[in-house]
Amino acid sequence: MTLVETPVHLPSSYGRLSGIRRIAAAKGTPLLLGLLATSAPITAYEGAVMAEEAMLISGGLLVRLRESRRRLARLIYDQRFGVHTADFADLEEFGLGHPDRVHYSPAHWGTLCRALPVQEVGRKDVFLDLGSGKGRMVLEAASRFAFRRVIGVELSPELVTVARDNVASTRLKLQAREIEFVNTDVLDYDIPPDVSVVFLNNPFRGEIFAAAMKRLIESADRYPRPITLIYFNPIEEPHLLGTGRFRHVRTVMPRWRSANGVFGTTRVYALA
Q: pTM for the full model?
C-alpha cells in the first residue's frame, strides 16, 4: 500500500482551510487524512484539494479508507481515554513465540458492550480476560459494567506492565471494586471459583486452547455456576462446540464491514 504524500502549497488560499486541516496543510500532510480523522464539515475548496489528493493514491488504498478510518478512530479513543492499547505486539519480541500463541491485536473498543447486555451483569459477577494484552477489554469491563472484580491474565510481563499503567492513567470512570492483572501462563492459571464471564480475543489455539477450555470446564464442574464465554475471532469454535459443554447463544457481526468467516465476529456461548 503506497500513499504519495505531495505537500500542498496554498500561499494565497491557506485561509480557506478550516480547523485541524489548516494545521495538517502547514505540516505538508494530505488533507484526505484529515477527512479520515474527523467528520467536521469541509469547505468547497477543501473538497477540491482532497479530490486532487485522491488522484495521488495508489496501491489500492482507496478500497481501504474505511479500515484506515477505523484505525484512526481506535487511536483517538486511546487518546480520549488516556491509555495506550492500539499498537500490536508480537510475542516473538519478548521471547515467548509459540505456534499456538497469537500476537497481541486488541479487540475493538465496544466489542464487549455489543456482545454482553449491561443488564446481564450484577455486582456478584466476575470478569476474566484470558490473554488480556494491554488491558483494553479489562478497562471496558471495569468501566461499562457492574462487575465486582475484573481480572486479566497475560503471559508477557511487558504487556502486563503496560496494562497496569493504563489502569493507573485512564480517564475512564472505573466501576469495578477490584482490578487485577496476573502475569502467568494460562496453562498454569487456576480459574477462580467466582468467575462468571470469560473473554477471549483469539489469544491462543490448538493444544493451548484445548487445555485452557478444559480448565474452564473443570472450574465449572468443581464450583457449579452459570458461565458466559465471549469469543472474538472464534477460530477454535469447532473444538469449543465439540466438547458438548458450550451452547452458542448469539453472534455479533462487525458494524462497519462484512465478516471474513469467523474473523470480525464475536460469538457468545453458555457453559452448561
A: 0.74
